[in-house]
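## retry 2 of 3
previous attempt timed out at serialization; input unchanged, resubmitting
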Amino acid sequence: MRSLLSLFVLIAFPSLAVAEATFYPAPSGDAEARVLTVYSSLDGPLARPMVEGFQKANPDIAVRYEEMLTGEIYDRIVHETDAGEKTADFAFSSAMDLQVKLSNDGYAQRSDLSLSGRWPQWANWRNTAYALTFEPAVFVYHKPSFVHEKPPASRAEFVDYLKRKGNSVFGQIGTYDIDRSGVGFLFMARDQEQFGDIWSVIQAMGAAGVKLYSTSSAILERVSDGRFVLGYNIVGSYAADWASRHPDVGIVLPKDYTVVMSRIGLVPQAAAAPDLGRRYLEFFMSPEGQSIMARELHIAAVNPDVAGDNTASTMQEILGAQLRPVPVSPGLMVYLDQVKRARLIARWNEALRLQ
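## retry succeeded, writing output
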């Protein structure tokens, strides 16, 4: 009976059965320690310093870290909540629209914390959904391919480069497949709002044989080894982490405008241990947690009390209006409208038709 039930779950709810779970025992050694359950889209190896930092401050807590895709996080929280079951104590996802929808539809609970009042207004939706990271969409480039000229630093320069180089760089450009990548779709939707001539960029990439991927690492790997010369709209934190380990990867923050996305953290309404979820959220927001994130994960800190180059406050001070953070608000749910989504994807595919 159990095997039949398991088979049914795999068939009916495949996204609920593929999470990669990592268990961190309580540092105190207490085998009966309370367990904090985290659903997250952040790669496990990147998450480790944050989990270990939290446990250093909370040695009596064990952590079960379940890594899954953004859509799976949403589906699982909704399914478990609607079934009357307990779900994660903390959810952390780069799908800003889905996280806000969880909050808006009653699947997240309010978390009034000591830092709530100081958190940037654009990054806090009713003390329920908090933007915890500051991640620009950047151009990445293969440094050896740009020894004799500067890499494109704006969308107009990007188009000019592709037109000048023509066949010599055909098939050597990469970006996200907006039909499969949630963050890719978000970036494209914001591009459409911010740049009236964005379709000339997409058409130029299509003419240059752009290759589409659902993950950042697939693009960055190809830029690092020279198979690609350019990557468009890549999540800056992944690019920075890759560049720290691969010296041939260069990064440009587009000077015309730079979209900034954030990963959103929240405590689900049906959390098994909401107090632990809030404790983890508070650590994530704290100067200590945000400093770990900036230093070891190469993700810019949002907390205004954290100093240094890799912080939202420093970047905004230097770049000002060039940065366009995506605000945490119900406006994000516009991107979930299936008709509007289908129209944007159809226009995207049409613009790429020259490929």
